[in-house]
Amino acid sequence: MSKHAAIESAEDRLFRALAAPIRRAILDALRDGPLTTGALCDRFGRIDRCTVMQHMKVLEGAGLLVAERRGRERLNHLNALPIRDLYARWVAPYAQEAVERLAALRDGLEGR
């Protein structure tokens, strides 16, 4: 493990995992339900299996992908909780403020 990886926080791993378009596409593919590793690799046929699996490992390290072994198959599940936590910290507070400003603007325009 590199010195940088040793000090990388869970939030850092999450942002790094979400930074790559292919990893976001993998998460999109898992949104409707779990897929086997083979099915995921088939969806991204332009990329070799080894590369897809490397991206999956980054997603797993960030807690966004949970793998379940079923015999010889590996079923991959989306874990949306880290995304929800990211939303709660980085989006919701700003969204609430924006809604309050819009309500104040409406009230001002309507003379309330």
Task: Give structural notes.
By secondary structure, the chain is an alpha+beta fold. The chain has two domains: 3-79, Winged helix-like DNA-binding domain superfamily/Winged helix DNA-binding domain (Arc Repressor Mutant, subunit A), CATH 1.10.10; 80-112. Helices cover 65% and strands 12% of the residues. The chain contains seven helices and three strands, in the order αααβααββαα. The chain has helices spanning 3-7, 10-19, 21-30, 37-43, 49-61, 81-90, 92-109, and strands at residues 35-36, 65-70, 73-78. It has a three-stranded antiparallel beta sheet. Strand 2 and strand 3 form a beta hairpin. Helix 2 (10-19) packs antiparallel against helix 5 (49-61). The chain is elongated, with a radius of gyration of 19 Å. It starts with a helix and ends with a helix. The mean pLDDT is 90.
Short descriptors:
alpha+beta, 112 residues, Arc Repressor Mutant, subunit A, 2 domains, elongated
DSSP, total strands: 3
For the largest sheet, list the strands in their spatial order: 1-3-2
- N-to-C series of helices and strands: HHHEHHEEHH
CATH topology of the largest domain: Arc Repressor Mutant, subunit A
Instruction: Give a quick account of the main beta sheet: strands, pairing sense, barrel closure.
Output: 3 strands, antiparallel
Percent strand equals 5-15%
Shape: elongated
Poorly predicted parts? none
- Indicate the structural class: alpha+beta
Helix fraction by DSSP (H/I, runs of at least 4): 55-70%
CATH superfamily of the largest domain: Winged helix-like DNA-binding domain superfamily/Winged helix DNA-binding domain
